Amino acid sequence: MNRKMKKQLQEFTFILPALVMFTIFVAYPFLQGFPISFTKWDGMSPVKAYVGLKNYIRIFQDANVTNAVKNTLLFTAVTMVFSNLFGLLFALMISKKSKLNNVLRTCIFMPYCLSLVLSSYIWRYVYSDVFYDKFGIASPLGSTAWVMIGLAVISIWRDAGYCMVVYIAAIQGVSKDYYEAAELEGATSWQKFKAITFPMIAPAVTANFTLLLAWGMKVFDYPMAATAGGPGRASETVAMLIYNNLFTYFKAGYGQAIAVVFTISIFAVSTLVSKTLRAREVEI
């Protein structure tokens, strides 16, 4: 065995445990459920009626699917942009090492340590018993027009701290020599950020945007805990729609078909975004 093959084998052994776990808990259940998507099944009966592609055709004609996709995309777009924006701003402000900055980092990151369900309950209370009682501001969770924005705020509050930690690590990895050279040339703070900081932390931007995209598209906990899909299905996401078809409406075949299309869509979109951002890193 030559040196190159030995190195590749060594690298493979590092990812083997994760690969095994992924195969058992993700790949196998997905492949096992794929045949169900071609049937009409209530999820309990031993009889599964084969219906061919009817479930898949129905997806593109179902108004509930269209509504769920719109809700999911709106939530994803808002959380992806603003979680990264606030995370980057926090990182720029408190990236330098100091006792005060350490305390601020802990406070900002702390919401990320809470579960998604607990975060939803906290903000449901804030919206109803703080914003409304103290300031007379109606809870967005009760508005069909603002409910997804209200849920997105919860996600931003929780995930901005995670983005901040990633950006701080990236910023601290940038050599000070670049900044010293820029100062000698008379560069302003904005010019240093635009020409040095942002290009150098591009891999962190790619990682955060890709992760937030995937998390946003499969969101389930926030709307389930805070609104249960209401009001009037205004906060029903694709993940919730799948759950409801599988366990509430007893349409397991149709729910599984949505799940298959949804999973493939997440993989395709995440891959496209990741490749686009990584190509930008190369250009930089």
UniProtKB/TrEMBL annotation:
Name recorded for this polypeptide: ABC transporter permease protein AmyD
Gene: amyD
Pfam families (UniProt xref): BPD_transp_1
Transmembrane segments: 12-31, 73-94, 106-123, 135-157, 195-215, 253-273
GO BP annotations, alphabetical order: transmembrane transport
Family of this protein: Belongs to the binding-protein-dependent transport system permease family.
Segments forming domain ABC transmembrane type-1: 69-273
Record's GO cellular component terms: plasma membrane
